[in-house]
Amino acid sequence: MFLLERVSDALLRLARGELPDLLNPPAPNVSEEVARLVDATNNIIKEYANARSFLMSLSEGSLDVDPPPRNFLISPFKQLHSNLRHLTWQTQQVSKGDLSQQVDFLGDFSLAFNSMIDSLKEKRRIEEALRKSHEDLKSANTLIMESIEYASSI
Amino acid sequence: MFKEERAEYKFQWKDLGNIEVGRPNLGPTTMVSVYRLMQYTLRDVLISKYGVESANKLLSEAGKLAGTEFCKNLLDLTANFEAFVAQLQETLKSLNIGVLRIEKADLSKMDFVLTVSEDLDCSGLPLTGETVCDYDEGFIAGILNTYTGKDFVVKEIDCWATGDRTCRFTAGIKK
After folding, report:
1. Entry pTM
2. A70 in contact with chain B, both atoms CB, cutoff 8 A
């Protein structure tokens, strides 16, 4: 297969989501432009290979896998990965009873998360009010019982 | 006061002046590009005069001083960690400095991974493959040092300029 055909084949495979083998270095007699094209194509193949393994982990929810550094192909996915890590931390905080956190600027996630935090805060407030009201009732009841006891002793 | 020789830092929060009185018409804010104009021209001169490594150190050291004063003057140092993070996030957001998010926080080891999105220093810069938030590294270290009383090392591992869209920093106690 001619060199340009191999380049074209590699690019088409990448466009289909397949991972082509790296192209062999061109013979010394090819033009500088073609050599640069082969080099650039190999760079894309390497970046795609790194990106693919990270994206597979991300799709499985494995957030411990770090994104490949200096990979410009998948910048928005790196941002998504970072946001998911942050949401995981936030959720862990909530499970520990920390309701002081808010999620900012993450679209629907922010709305849902912040609404959940507000609901939990309201629940905590109601529980506290109920507990206090119960304590007050208990104190009032004790007072009444003491009064009755005192009255009956007269 | 601003121009006297010194062997140790003298900056105080009040050196920022009374902006309300001084800028009754233009107000307390400016554009991000103006801030960056100052930082990147300063960086350019520092690199030209002292080299990349020294310039980075100077920017980081200035950031650390800023983070220390920022923490002392704008944050409640008596808050527990969770409340401290929440107020830090809120303060950075309200001052349009950036969107702070915690990815990991191990309080027993004092190890943290945090990100800053829409960062004042770098978001939107050309993708050069270099991390550029040396000032932020120092700023975060200054805040953590002041809050915990321990000496922190903060390292930027991902940056807008490295194609990561959000800046990621690791922070741990200096060994």
Report:
1. 0.86
2. yes
Q: Cα(B25)–Cα(B105) distance, rounded to whole angstroms?
A: 43
Which residues does residue B116 pair with via DSSP β-bridges, in sequence order? B100, B167
Judge whether B123 is closer than 8 Å to chain A, CB to CB. no
**Mean per-residue pLDDT pooled into runs of 10, chain A (154 residues):** 89 95 90 93 95 94 92 90 93 92 90 94 95 94 92 86
Best A86, A102, A113 residue to mutate vs chain B (most B CBs within 10 Å): A86
How close is the nearest chain B Cα to the Cα of A137, in Å?
33
Q: Does ipTM come in above 0.90?
A: no
Residues 6+ apart with CB under 8 A from B163: A70, A71, A72, A75, A78, B127, B129
